[in-house]
Amino acid sequence: DAIAATSLGLGVVQERLGKYDEALDRYQVALSIFERDKNLLRVASVHRSIGTLYKSQKDYPRAMHFYQQSLSVRKDIGDKIGVASTLVSVAKLYLILGMCSTEIPS
Predict the structure, then answer these.
(1) What gap in Å lies between CA 57 and CA 59, rounded to an integer?
(2) Considering only CA atoms, which of 79, 64, 17, 37 is closest in space to residue 47?
(3) Model pTM?
(4) Is 59 exposed, middle or buried (0-12, 13-18, 19+ CB in 10 A)?
């Protein structure tokens, strides 16, 4: 859906400008449309973007929640590359939290 893709793109721009509330609003619009359309690959992508936004704000529990949401969807649809990239995001968050020796969930 063009509206969802545009909203996602605007969310990325807003996030890079440090306008986190506006970015989150755009991500939520995109997420709602992708969920409605059952576009699970894009749903997972938006979840990861929201996780990254929260990580930027140092809201690590919310970041992890959205990374886990992305990971779950990506596993369900068999998106192995997406699983790997999302696990990298999770690992980076573990590094920030000083949890380097913690086992990454499979």
Answers:
(1) 5
(2) 64
(3) 0.90
(4) middle
The encoded tokens of residue 32 equal 């709602």
pLDDT tens digits, one per residue of 42-67? 999 999 999 999 999 999 999 999 99
Report which of 60, 42, 41, 40 is spatially closest to residue 51, judged by C-alpha positions: 60
Amino acid identity, position 67: Y
d(CA 61, CA 32): 22
pLDDT value of residue 98: 86
Q: Please, where are the H alpha helices in 1-106?
A: 2-16, 20-36, 40-56, 60-77, 80-96
Each residue of 63-100: b (16+ CB within 10 Å) or e? bbebbebbbebbeeeebeebbeebbebbeebbeeeeee
Query: What pLDDT digit, counting tens, does each position of 21-47 carry?
Result: 999 999 999 999 999 999 999 999 999
